[in-house]
Design a protein that fits this description.
homodimer, alpha/beta, eight-stranded parallel β-barrel, 35 helices, 33 strands, 46% helix
Amino acid sequence: MAKKVKYVYAFEEGNKEMKSLLGGKGANLAEMKSLGINVPPGFTITTETCKIYNDIGKKILPEVESQINSNLASLEKKMGKKLGDANDPLLVSVRSGAAASMPGMMDTILNLGLNDKSVVGLAEKTGNARFAWDSYRRLIQMFGSVVLEVEHSAFEHILESVKDTKGAKYDTDLTTEDLKEIVKKYKEMVKKETKADFPQDPKKQLELSIKAVFNSWNNYRAERYREINNIKGLIGTAVNIQAMVFGNLGDDSGTGVCFTRNPSTGEAKFYGEYLMNAQGEDVVAGIRTPLAVSALQKQAPKIYKELVDVCNRVEKHYKDMQDMEFTIMKGVLYILQARNGKRTAAAAVKVAVDLVKEKLITKEQAILRIDPNQLNQLLHKQFDPIALNKAEPVAQGLPASPGAAVGEIVFTASDAFEKTKKGLAVILVRTETSPEDIDGMHSAKGILTARGGMTSHAAVVARGMGTCCVAGCSDLIISEKAKTLTIKDRGITLKEGDAISLDGSTGKVYVGKINTQDPELSGDFGKLMAWADEFRKIGVRTNADTPTDAVMARKFGAEGIGLCRTEHMFFEGDRIKAVREMILSNTLEARKKALAKLLPYQREDFVGLFHTMEGFPVTVRYLDPPLHEFLPTKEKDIAELSKEMKVSVDVLKAKIDDLHEFNPMLGHRGCRLAITFPEIYDMQTTAVIEAAILVTKKCPICGKKHKVTPEIMIPLVATTKEFSILKDAVVKIVEAKLKEAKNKMAYKIGTMIEVPRAAVVADKIVTSGAEFFSFGTNDLTQMGAGLSRDDAGKFLKEYVAQGIYEFDPFEVLDQEGIGEFIRIAIKKGRGIKKDLKIGICGEHGGEPRTVEFCHREGFTYVSCSPFRVPIARLAAAQAAVKEKMKK
Amino acid sequence: MAKKVKYVYAFEEGNKEMKSLLGGKGANLAEMKSLGINVPPGFTITTETCKIYNDIGKKILPEVESQINSNLASLEKKMGKKLGDANDPLLVSVRSGAAASMPGMMDTILNLGLNDKSVVGLAEKTGNARFAWDSYRRLIQMFGSVVLEVEHSAFEHILESVKDTKGAKYDTDLTTEDLKEIVKKYKEMVKKETKADFPQDPKKQLELSIKAVFNSWNNYRAERYREINNIKGLIGTAVNIQAMVFGNLGDDSGTGVCFTRNPSTGEAKFYGEYLMNAQGEDVVAGIRTPLAVSALQKQAPKIYKELVDVCNRVEKHYKDMQDMEFTIMKGVLYILQARNGKRTAAAAVKVAVDLVKEKLITKEQAILRIDPNQLNQLLHKQFDPIALNKAEPVAQGLPASPGAAVGEIVFTASDAFEKTKKGLAVILVRTETSPEDIDGMHSAKGILTARGGMTSHAAVVARGMGTCCVAGCSDLIISEKAKTLTIKDRGITLKEGDAISLDGSTGKVYVGKINTQDPELSGDFGKLMAWADEFRKIGVRTNADTPTDAVMARKFGAEGIGLCRTEHMFFEGDRIKAVREMILSNTLEARKKALAKLLPYQREDFVGLFHTMEGFPVTVRYLDPPLHEFLPTKEKDIAELSKEMKVSVDVLKAKIDDLHEFNPMLGHRGCRLAITFPEIYDMQTTAVIEAAILVTKKCPICGKKHKVTPEIMIPLVATTKEFSILKDAVVKIVEAKLKEAKNKMAYKIGTMIEVPRAAVVADKIVTSGAEFFSFGTNDLTQMGAGLSRDDAGKFLKEYVAQGIYEFDPFEVLDQEGIGEFIRIAIKKGRGIKKDLKIGICGEHGGEPRTVEFCHREGFTYVSCSPFRVPIARLAAAQAAVKEKMKK
């Protein structure tokens, strides 16, 4: 005989561990029941039932039906009422509830069990005819739209017309008679639309409602929600059937929501709102102003005490701040829902730290409580949440660099620079940015681009600076010539000077100005970070190109610089002239002359970094981008440069043309530049070592003697010989300079591992002398997976939607594929040199999942943009704690 | 006591195995000596001595000096003459000779031992004053320019002025007195130039000469030669010091060269030329016409017999055709040199086959005798070697596709097409070619591009068609607008209609027309190929996109199609219209409509291929290039298309703009197109399977029933899921079509491994159903090593010169790096499916070293362009033979 499958669980039969079977809501209701909390009774149909229902062609198995019936019978018994009873009907709610929270994404039916007869009985029993008829009206409306799929507007239309006729402003102004008329009209309309009467049989109502919830699992809204929130592996939704309780049965009834702590600040103070003689919708409708929950203490001290008591019990049980819904029905307190409360980042930190103080949780648990990404909120400007709620976004891009920015639109970097000098707040809007735009990007409050992904130039630079950026917003058409910004499908065209607001944390773009709030770092934040540092096993460094970045990163706890991109130093002020002179030189002599002009700048840069980092390691990556990135592309700029350099426009254009590449990503850049033009790296080596010698002797900035261990990093190495040739060149200069200065400073020479070939010959690269590896996961992803980060936007969305990649591989490291290169390289590299130092300096270095991967694979450190340092520290700690827990 | 090192070997002390120590020439002279052949006696200073000399700062160790002296003493004893003897001086030659042949790359000094006194003795002893003074003159001239570094022209100047004064036309017209005057003037000039007398001490002459040879090892010419010919790992040159013998001592003396077989045809007939009473230079000077060696039979039958006898002995000893130099001095035959003779490809094949017939070598040895690349000569048009010798190249590009081409310059594909229709032979000259140019490329006799590497579009397409192509000729500036071709640094500008000649085997470009010879395949060629097929272990397929290609490839012995690039089919005639219509469609419906137009063409293509291949496997690769490759780029063409498609120019440009990619290599192409537009591959699947069903039933071309096993290959797969999604789509259509046709044909679905990520997840790809792998080594090299084939030309030369890559990785597979991806993928793939079919279809598939690699790594087959099929067959056989020999 086949084993009997249990499809339906009474609340008494479940617990919080059964989420995947009972859904989050069902498991929680069951858990609360087990705590002895007064939850309206009910039962849950399992998520497996939903799967079977959908698998066998939307049919409910007879066994399921019979289990529902027997649970319904016992519910009726508990409540002493019967579904559809003409005199004292049991009313139930039917609610969806999957294992993962999907708020508002699926449908709910309330007041189920009313019909033409039981409505009368309810009116009599409660002595509140208006309540009964309003409940019936609501049932028909919900059931009609959700289950029978009648247009919602058809109901609204009837409601509005009756209100108009009766001169009623609010729903609450409607009388019992008005409601009866509405019910009549609703039923007529439903019959007309569905060619059938509104079902009077409550059992039929229940069956159809259950099916509707099951069906809603696969509706567009729900699927999109799962896609957007990356919810995978769920089999379906559970259905919760629960006795209705009413807060609008008189002055001894009421309804409210409360938090065990303040969800906004985290303060350990009971917090909430309620309304007496009201239903949940009334609170939302905003007609009556809810009272602070503290008022309940006077209004109903016994209930208040019970509520506080329940809340404390539940919080202690779940060991986290709770968000609860309650209803008081005729003096009896029912808890409808309790769940871990959503909270701001500030509250999350405070609650976690407080719970440790209260000895409810351990430091490890506190660390696991915070979503590292949420820390962004603490580190960047945010929009005022109330103002944000009212605003409607006009376009959606990628959340490239978090924060909120408000300002006037400008279309060129120079405008951004000029207008900022005049004290204006500007948003730089570009099709894409290029290194030439760097000054303008620095000036702007926010950056908006139409093209490019999470690791496009705009995104990388913005994150590095902590500037808000929305990138790859393909809804935009930007005319830099006409200085207009058109939002496709919206018919909105903005011009220079118009105000916009960007939310870099969500990628949303708004027209007009939205108020912002400044970030503030609390002592609790510091405490949490200190705990994180206690537990984490891997180092956290920063990607910083300037002393300003470095100062910020140290404030955020960076333990060194993992990546200093020297090319960014080449764009500032007069330097670009010398760089261009070098590029336009045709002889070694001329190139050396131009490079000599850059040397003092570079030396000064490194002095600044060494000074700022006060002995922490500084990894200097040598020039990486192709030379054409330093030349202008626009006619106007070329003409200007031609004058400046005294080189004819034709010669200039020929040079630019000569440097043009079909696939610059795979072109003449990185260490390849130094193989053909060794003098470039020679200048950089000279600058690094001269700066290091200076600061060890007497820092030109502070006069102190710093300890310095320069780490020189060669980019884009693909072969052993590239590395050894360039290493030899570095050593030659460094040794000569050290000898000259009688200095015995230690220094390291290592390589980026960013070309796939390098990963598979990593053993040979170590043999040829590499002292450290730093994985450049941006390029490793680009080349390894054959994806241009600037172009892949066109299809990557589709790829993630189809599950080809679980996440955008430029946001979250592709651990299976690109991770395999890393595993191979580490195995080969450490096979030769057991203690090989291994880091990551791609954009992934500050992404929590990737940090966990790095922890697991034995990295020495991760390096990320300054603003992601705290995130990486927390993620690293979480990885260590999780590992410890597994053991 | 330190072991005594032997720095100098008498010829009697060496043998042919000692090449690396004695150099090729020294080892050969020793070997001949050991065969009892009358070689003028002498000794060899080892290559190690050269290395030490250069290592210790150009000094000759005392031990070396003493060993030289004792060998010189025994040489003097053998010859019964003394160096510098005033009455009967010993004269010697000093010649370089490294382990690898470097003809003419290093310096030689003859007649060493003459001075103001011994010249008189020589005159008396030989009774030939003119000979003695001419020898002295030659010594001063050679020694002066080579050792003393006096400008060669200074000697020429004196010689010419004396000849003018005396009214002498040729050197031979000069009298003894004239020569004495010249010697006097030479010595005066040398003294003036070098501030020292011409050294009279023969020992000093010898020492300086030896040093000069050692120095010449590192001169520019020699280094360039080694670089160009990829000669590596040698430590230096040996120096051979040998007694001089003279062919110009009277009518019983003479000199000549001979081959044991005809080096041009391979015919087994003694072949050569000689002159009596002459020196080697006289033959070269071209004043007297040398006689065929057969004439010697009459003139000196004994000598002739001896020569033939020696030749036979040497050939039998070396078991290969010999190229020999001989001198007859006063009736005595001396052999100066014997070496394996250089030969044409035709001769190489004939000699190898004949030697097998003569049982001198085995079939395996015959197979190893032929350089597979040399077969190109047999398969393509070649320039008349005499005409070629006289022509001076004006530019050097990459030898992208072998053969010789002569024609008028055209600058556009349409001009090529039009002019060819009119019967003209044209050379298509472009900065770079694109798929739009395909018709013009088909028409042209040859293709010349200024940009792009060995696997650029022009190169790949040209090789596929067997058309001569010189690519990436960076010496050119091409103005397609002005229709001019300027050769940098030459001041040559050619215009449309001017004639040029291209040598696709060397990459050289010539102005004007050079006569060409047609290729001819002999029966011996067929025999050799049959032997190759007997021994080789791996299959050889071809890359063919059209029945024409396929027919040619079958003629060359291809055993199937390893790569049919379906995109090439999209460009022909009306098809491009439908393709463009598809690209410009905004809806699925419209796209499907356009694709429906392509279906019959594609089906017909596949019918043609299946018919041609008569049951051999056909691997069809689905659409690979990014869609923008199908759209025009020039204003004019866009305007035309706009009219044709009835789409505004603006819309068209916007679309082209939208499709633009920064790194198209890493962009939206390959299977990515089918993930976003599944209907494209669906159409291709339909075409493949419908064609297969047709030909198995009744071939529409020949009416026969063919056996067909279509192999469908998905390009650019990087992830498991891409493959499984696309495989499922293929299977769905194929199964439906087979069911409908009641056909149970077998078919295979596999993938290219060309994205590095795919290589490291190869196991998972096999698990998800891949039935074969084909390595796309072009893209694997591009992505794996991060090299854009279209851009890398700028630095790859430098990379190869510095030994970073041993060869251009687009020509010869980078076995260490890219090979490692292949090894990883094979290990992972075969770990799951032991008999996984593995092929290669990149351009490397026909490159001998790569074929050997594929053999070693257990490939099932290699696939290459039709014209490389014989090369691959031979290379595969060589790999198998070499492996067998090792066991």
